[in-house]
Amino acid sequence: MKWKQIPLGLLQTNCYIVYNENNSCLIVDPGDNPKKLSTVIEQLELKPEAIVLTHAHFDHIGAVDRIRDKYGIKVYIHEKEKDWLSDPALNGSKHFMLNEPIKVRAADHLINDEGVMSIGSFKFEVFETPGHSPGSISIYFSDAEFVLAGDALFNGGIGRTDLPGGNHNQLIRSIDEKLMSLPEQTEVLPGHGPTTPLV
């Protein structure tokens, strides 16, 4: 299993392409710049199987509809943020200096629990890691020893909790109980900035 980090958009939000030996891939958090993202996918000769969202803030979802339509793939998000995709007040785009608020069509599949999940040829574990937002999830590939942590945990910091639905104490619990319980060799792939070792 391999991954590629692609910073996209005004906030340089990390989109990740996770791909396997069959050249199938998952797209995690396509926040903006669909042309740039699809160029990378085509350069690597990958076949997208789905979009998975760690959460629904505007800088993580801006290119969802254009990418899902280009490749004819499904979108997955935690059920607690299903309404955020189409609501600029919830996804935050209403409050930032954007040309127009972000509105995305409904997800095709809702994640409503933790545990092992399969999408196409991919198998991974989902952890609910709220605090930055109510429906934040982390996606753990145990065999490849990496976790996509969204905006929960960064290199040298943690996610902000002053946005709608944010909760500092809840975020600390998520990090301590979920992320810090992973094997110490796990590499953390955050929503912004460089990757970081877990310890």
TrEMBL record:
Residues 12-192 form the Metallo-beta-lactamase domain. SUPFAM superfamilies: Metallo-hydrolase/oxidoreductase (SSF56281). PANTHER family: HYDROXYACYLGLUTATHIONE HYDROLASE GLOC. Keywords: Hydrolase, Metal-binding, Zinc. GO terms for molecular function: hydrolase activity; metal ion binding. Its cofactor is Zn(2+). It comes from Mesobacillus boroniphilus JCM 21738. The keyword Zinc applies. SMART domains: Lactamase_B (SM00849). Gene3D superfamilies: Ribonuclease Z/Hydroxyacylglutathione hydrolase-like (3.60.15.10). This is Hydroxyacylglutathione hydrolase. The keyword Hydrolase applies.
